[in-house]
TrEMBL record:
Its cofactor is Zn(2+). It catalyses: N(6)-methyl-AMP + H2O + H(+) = IMP + methylamine. Belongs to the metallo-dependent hydrolases superfamily. Adenosine and AMP deaminases family. The keyword Aminoacyl-tRNA synthetase does not apply. One of its GO terms (biological process) is adenosine catabolic process. This is Adenosine deaminase domain-containing protein.
Length: 382
């Protein structure tokens, strides 16, 4: 690892473009955080015309660059006002997948919080059906979201295998993306609502749902509220990932690491004993550089824990978190890591390639992804 490289803006742009050509794996992306600004503005304008919101009040909120952690969660509330009807949920799902695929993300785990909204006849199930409709309506690229028989841990349990859209045009020149879904529990929810989400995830296993995420404003609620639901998810063979250490809540961090989730997101506020525990556990960490800086969870990339974890060869994967909210992309995150940490293309390509080991899908998908990376390594002469 060398020291930080200062790039001119044209060098940074060239680096980003190079990263667009590289296959990548995205494991930490929130659906409603990944919506295009242009779509949000269009939706806001429409609601403004109907008199439901004042467009001029929300336009600058959508376009604002830097946001504190508190502002980010206020923005999510606004985004949810704009996006949460069935048709729009379907639309944003389709667009988000096509956006990731367009920059050569070959495997995407998309997470979203199933929402209930009685006033528009939306249940958590119908919300998720709208998401699945979004997967089915992807047209610009080939999509595989049909789970394979071992996408979960318990091969004996029944998997309702409905082949909704399992296309493979290898050799046709079309891009192909694997998509799997994680259902998020929001820290504002009750224990019962969390259990409902886990049961829904189990019922939707045949439609690409592979796991559960715990997210939401880290300053709200107690993670122990969700322990029963998370334990049940794990017993039933769903994968579990937790947002861990976004705020300095040491008791919670310690308990989350003891739970041994299959992955954690962020891991910003760990203390020395927590790092020791994390490293010995080998739990892979989903790293979101731009998000951490923009929300000021980490004050500067010079002191980002990426460096220490990379040196320790701890399993890690670079992710976007909320590409819309933070105006980023996975290619930007790789080029940022390259300049901030002085890593070469070869080292970071290897990091992207190693991410395949941490996906929540079966060996068949892993094998296909490994082949994609091998072929890219040859073409890119890495
Ligand atoms: C914690 C986050 C998050 O689920 O409506 N979310 N939770 N930390 C973060 N880092 C900044 N970014 C997003 O997507 C939006 C929701 O994802 C969670 C929040 O609960 C947010 O409301 P969905 O698709």
């Amino acid at each position: 690892m060398e020291t930080q490289k200062i790039l001119t803006s044209s060098e940074a742009e060239e680096e980003r473009r190079w990263w667009v050509t590289v296959p990548k794996v995205e494991l930490h992306a929130h659906l409603n955080g990944s919506v295009r600004d242009s779509t949000l503005l269009e939706l806001a304008r429409r609601l403004g015309e109907k008199g439901r919101i004042a467009f001029s009040d929300v336009e600058h909120v959508i376009l604002k660059g830097d946001r504190s952690c508190r502002e980010v969660f206020k923005l999510f509330d606004l985004i949810h006002v704009l996006t949460t009807d069935h048709k729009t949920v379907t639309r944003i799902t389709k667009e988000v997948i096509e956006d990731f695929a367009s920059e050569n993300v070959v495997y995407l785990e998309l997470r979203t919080t199933p929402k209930r909204n009685d006033s528009i006849g939306m249940s958590k199930r119908s919300y998720m059906e709208a998401v699945i409709n979004g997967l089915s309506s992807v047209t610009e690229v080939d999509i595989d979201f049909t789970p394979h028989s071992t996408d979960h841990h318990d091969p004996a349990s029944s998997c309702n295998s409905i082949a909704v859209n399992n296309v493979d045009h290898q050799g046709s020149g079309r891009k192909k993306i694997y998509v799997r879904l994680l259902l998020s529990i929001d820290r504002r929810e009750t224990a019962e609502a969390a259990m409902e989400t886990v049961k829904l995830a189990l019922e939707m296993r045949g439609l690409g749902v592979v796991g559960i995420d715990l997210s939401g404003n880290p300053s709200v609620g107690e993670w122990s509220t969700y322990l029963a639901a998370l334990q049940f998810a794990r017993e039933q063979g769903l994968y579990v990932t937790l947002h861990c250490g976004e705020v300095p809540n040491y008791e919670e961090i310690n308990a989350m690491l003891d739970f041994l989730p299959q992955r954690i997101g962020h891991a910003c506020f760990l203390r020395e004993p927590d790092w020791v525990k994390l490293k010995s556990s080998k739990i892979p960490v989903e790293i979101c550089l731009t998000s951490n800086i923009m929300t000021d969870t980490i004050s500067s990339l010079d002191i980002h824990h990426f460096v220490d974890l990379y040196r320790a060869k701890h399993p890690m994967v670079l992710c976007t978190d909320d590409s819309g909210v933070f105006s980023t992309s996975l290619s930007k995150e790789y080029s940022l890591a390259s300049s901030a940490f002085g890593l070469g293309r070869k080292e970071l390509f290897q990091l992207a390639r190693d991410s395949v080991e941490f996906i929540f899908a079966d060996g068949g998908v892993k094998q296909e992804l490994k082949e994609i990376f091998s072929s890219a390594a040859g073409k890119l002469e890495l």
